[in-house]
Every structure is written in C-alpha cells, then in structure tokens.
Amino acid sequence: MRSQQFLESEWDYCLVLDSCRYDVFESVYDEYLDGSLERRESIGSSTPEWAYRTFTGSHDIAYFSGNPFINSLGIPLSELKWGASCDYDWTATDHISNVIDIWREGWDDELGTVPPENMTEGFENHQDAVEEAERTVLHYMQPHAPYLSRGQGGKLGQIKEGINRQAESDGDGGVVSKIGDTVRPKLEQSLEGSSLAQKAGLWLEMDPVELVRGGTRQTAMEYHEQNLRIALEEIVDLIDDLDGDIVVTADHGEAFGEQGVWEHHIETHIPPLIEVPWLEVDGVA
C-alpha cells in the first residue's frame, strides 16, 4: 500500500475528512463523486500525530480548519491540555502560511461541531486567503463524532472550549493549566489502556435506544456512514466552484473494536486507523 504522500502529491484543493475509514468511504463515495480512488497509508493515527508528521517544513497553504488541534493560536501540541496528550513540539502557524479557524467562526453550539455547510461558508468568506496561497486545504470534522443525525454533540465541544480557555489563561499560568498538567496524563493513560473506557467515550455520542438495539460496533458504523454522507453532499455542491485539481482524503481513520481499539489514539498504527482514502476527483457522479 502506498503512503499518503499528502504534500508530495499534485493537488490545488485537498478536502480532508477527519477520521474517515477507507472501507466506509469506498462503499459510498461513487454515489456522490467520480474519480480515481486509492487506499493509502496515513503517517498518523490521530490528528495531532498526522499534522506533526505531515507538515514539517514551511508550506504556502490556506488551511481552513474545522479541527481545533490545527489552529492559529500558536499553542504547541505538547502543551495542549484538552484532548491530546503528546510530546509533539509543533504548532500549525510555524509550518502553514495561513490557518483559518473555522472551528471558531463556524462552530454550531447545538450540534457541538462545525457542520460541513459552515465550512463552505467560511471558505467563501475568505477567498482572499485562497487567492494568496499556493494551495488550499479544507479540513472537515465529519465523519468524526459528534454524529449530526443525532443533532447534538459532547466531547468535541469540550476540546474546543478547553483550548479556547487555555489560550486565555496560559499567559499567567492559571489554575486550569495547572490542574490539566496533573490530571490529564493520568486520565488519558487510563483511556489508552482500557477498551471498555474507550467504548464508554464513544457511548456518549450515541442514541441509547439505537445502541441497545444494534450494539456498539454496528451503531457506530452506521453513524460514521451517515456523517460521511452529510459531508459528501456538501462537497458535491462545493467542487463545482473549484478550479483546479481536487483530492479528497482523510487525516486518519476510526476504529470500532478492531484489536480492542475504539475511536482513534496517537501512535496506534492498526489498519482501521491508518488506511485512508485518496480520491482524485473527476467530477460529480
């Protein structure tokens, strides 16, 4: 299997679907888009790892980010207290010429995420950034939870608000920062080592009735596909207005019980997490 070669490949616009599994994408994409699809291998099993290993130089890119970990705030990933425990001394602004924080301006409080139509709106509102950059990335949060068919979300909202608070408090070494330094590593270590704890985190994003009826894996896969379809429907409308070579891919995949892993975690290089789609788009199906 070929490595993703995200920056080495030819494209003018790259549409990144956060956490998108290759097998689910392969099963539905041709209902929306025409093109040449490959299975490629991501170099990261989570967004922080993927970003750290992908963007190592200086890149003239307008990066529309629905994901709070890729932001213009200048906080190194290693210092983030919310949602990612890693040693990566990496900030997006050191490597990407222009990061547009759609995770801030396009956030939907009710849904607990950035819906795909808000990504389109942000893209349209910042055409000056697109014109000034050599290439453009639109990083959608879908099919990552929260699941839009449920109409509400939880964990991603906590990460977003936590990063915002950290940006405001780190200057004076506030109480939130000090507590995070103590509690976060212990909490995340327990999550990484426990399949049950990982599943419990996923249950927060699910409808209890559907969970009981279908089980965790089946219900999660159905939600994942629904989120992907919602994103692809918006992408279909967007690409008609794009002039250039377009690629649709993912930063990493999502695990639903394979090898005891649920969701996605840093440096967990199992097939469901590192096998991602690479679609060179010809047009709308």
Q: How would you characterize this protein structure?
A:
The protein contains eleven helices and ten strands. The chain has 285 residues and is α/β, with parallel strands linked by helices. It has one domain (2-284): 3-Layer(aba) Sandwich (Alkaline Phosphatase, subunit A). It has an eight-stranded mixed beta sheet. This is Sulfatase N-terminal domain-containing protein.
Which structural class is indicated by helix and strand composition?
A: alpha/beta
Give, in order, the helices and strands. EEHEHEEHHHEHHHHHEEEHE
- Uncertain residue ranges: 172-191
**CATH C-level:** Alpha Beta
The neighbouring-strand order within the major sheet is: 1-3-10-7-2-6-4-5
What is the secondary structure topology, with strand pairs?
Elements: E1 2-3, E2 13-17, H1 22-28, E3 33-41, H2 47-54, E4 59-65, E5 96-101, H3 102-105, H4 116-125, H5 127-132, E6 135-140, H6 155-169, H7 175-192, H8 195-203, H9 208-214, H10 216-239, E7 246-249, E8 255-256, E9 262-263, H11 271-274, E10 275-284
Parallel strand pairs: 1-3, 2-6, 2-7, 4-5, 4-6
Antiparallel strand pairs: 3-10, 7-10, 8-9
Helix pairs in contact: 9-10
InterPro entries: Alkaline_phosphatase_core_sf
Protein name: Sulfatase N-terminal domain-containing protein
